[in-house]
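$ ./design --mode recover --in tokens.txt
reading tokens...
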């Protein structure tokens, strides 16, 4: 790190139902590629990522939370100290999109700040290209627009992207959008 660079360390959460591709997204972002065989996360898993933007070094502690209902009681402890979250659903499984409201509630209840910025990710977009029935982009965008209206007073900006851990589509952009949202949120906290 050169002189004059600012260093920021943020804990961020990856959450959403099981088998939506959270671990695959994290691994793709970390440069570990894609694997068709993943074991489901038990409790939580975390890793570190570092990125330098302008004069700031961002060091992210990325917590990948287990999405299965049986881990709900354990998950609450992993939210503490989070600055932001990526909420992930599988575009081919509508119920994972519908459950995002529950994930937002869990995020807001378990973060000290009564909510943090988050990015909504419709993952597995590569399957749309194969003709699989999916949650329409317009529906997700409309829902996110309503969230932005709801949380405007808290300076929580919600962004929506469709991603593919398999192809890498919008994976880096998801983390970039989260970083930008956290910066705006923190500026308005002061």
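writing sequence...
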């Amino acid at each position: 790190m050169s002189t004059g660079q600012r260093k920021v360390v943020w804990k961020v959460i990856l959450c959403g139902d099981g088998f939506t591709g959270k671990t695959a997204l994290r691994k793709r972002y970390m440069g570990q590629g894609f694997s068709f065989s993943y074991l489901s996360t038990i409790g939580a898993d975390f890793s570190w990522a570092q990125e330098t933007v302008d004069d700031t070094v961002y060091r992210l502690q990325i917590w990948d939370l287990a999405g299965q209902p049986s881990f709900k009681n354990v998950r609450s402890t992993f939210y503490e100290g989070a600055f932001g979250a990526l909420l992930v659903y599988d575009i081919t499984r509508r119920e994972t999109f519908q459950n995002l409201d529950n994930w937002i509630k869990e995020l807001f209840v378990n973060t000290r700040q009564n909510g943090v910025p988050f990015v909504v990710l419709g993952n597995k977009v590569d399957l749309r290209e194969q003709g699989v029935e999916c949650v329409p982009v317009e529906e997700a965008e409309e829902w996110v627009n309503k969230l932005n209206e709801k949380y405007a007073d808290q300076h929580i900006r919600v962004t929506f992207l469709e991603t593919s851990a398999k192809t890498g589509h919008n994976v880096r952009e998801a983390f970039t959008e989260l970083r930008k949202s956290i910066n705006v949120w923190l500026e308005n906290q002061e």
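exit 0
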